[in-house]
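thread from #wetlab-drylab

HS: before we spend reagent money on co-crystallization trials with iron/sulfur cluster, can we at least see a predicted complex? here's what I'd submit
DV: go for it
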Amino acid sequence: MSITLDLSRVSNAAPKAPVNLSGLTRAGLRQALIDADVCPPEKAKMRASQVWSWIHHYGVTDFSAMSNVAKDMQARLAEHFTLARPEVVERQVSKDGTRKWLIRTAPGIEIETVYIPDVGRAGALCVSSQVGCTLNCTFCHTGTQKLVRNLTAAEIVAQVQVARDDLEEWPSPKEDRRLSNIVFMGMGEPLYNLDNVSDAIDIISDNEGIALSRRRITVSTSGVVPQLQALGERTAAMLAISLHATNDRLRDVLVPLNKKYPLEQLMAAIRAYPGLSNARRVTFEYVMLKGVNDSPEEARALLKLIEGIPAKINLIPFNPWPGVDYECSDWKTIERFAAILNKAGYASPIRTPRGRDILAACGQLKSESEKVRASALRKAEQAAGAEAA
Ligand code: SF4
């Protein structure tokens, strides 16, 4: 007897991972509940509101903790969705109180997230928007890690959740928060991942959840000019520009994206950023590189460049990393640079380096697994370059 197997309906696709509800906007959550038949459409808004509050106000990671949700609905939620946190592969605490987490959200997807106390109103969380980066800013350690992929909104929100787990900030405190500000200054260029960054900001700023004001959320870009307007319109977030040079010749080297969007275009887009005012100033980030961009002439050129823009300037002493050729400017040089800006009426704080001992400072972020490989690669490239010369 022969048996014929009908394989026409066998799928080769791997089983789909359940959707993590933490990464859905309110509208997305409501629709997901309807699509999965968790509740009838006419009750979806109310149910989504309940579930939202458990996820984003109370920070629960288990549907069975949702005490005002009926048991059978909890079961249906658990059948279709997850609230699981990603794995925290490593947690480091600097002697200055800075905390850094290496988070693995999926195989090969590792992100570094840093909490810096006493920054902003109480403490700032520096989140990543991509794994690796395509932009290769020459002073930036992260830029030596090639892009793996954009992070999803769930993976961006997860960084905030992991930090709040560690800081014990659930439910969302009304006052005396330790995590008061969010800066998109970790790994990656946020404007190359605007959809997910924008959804994550909608989630993080929702008043019935984590409830961080959009004015305390800053998105830093190296200058993706065509997306600046959309960033302002979609997120109403504060804008920071990774500037670092006052002329195209130097900026082309430090921030190679400048070759595509030179300073003239960038400054025009900044001037047109929605909502810019004295109360909502743009932040210019300026890394202090010895003998490269730190002269008094450069300070005066900077004033000219930003003339008329409501702005403050963050002066960032360069944080060296293995294999890099730049050095940090002398402290006196940085102070002289700051004094010129201050005298012209611009707040220009010198960012005290934080978390240097755990490689958590600006531009030092990089997935642990990539560090050794990238440094070795860079050295090999340098050696090859020297040989060719
Ligand atoms: S500074 Fe930002 S945009 Fe430039 S390489 Fe580093 S992570 Fe990428």
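DV: Residues 229 and 388 are 44 Å apart (CA to CA).
HS: ok that's useful, forwarding to the group
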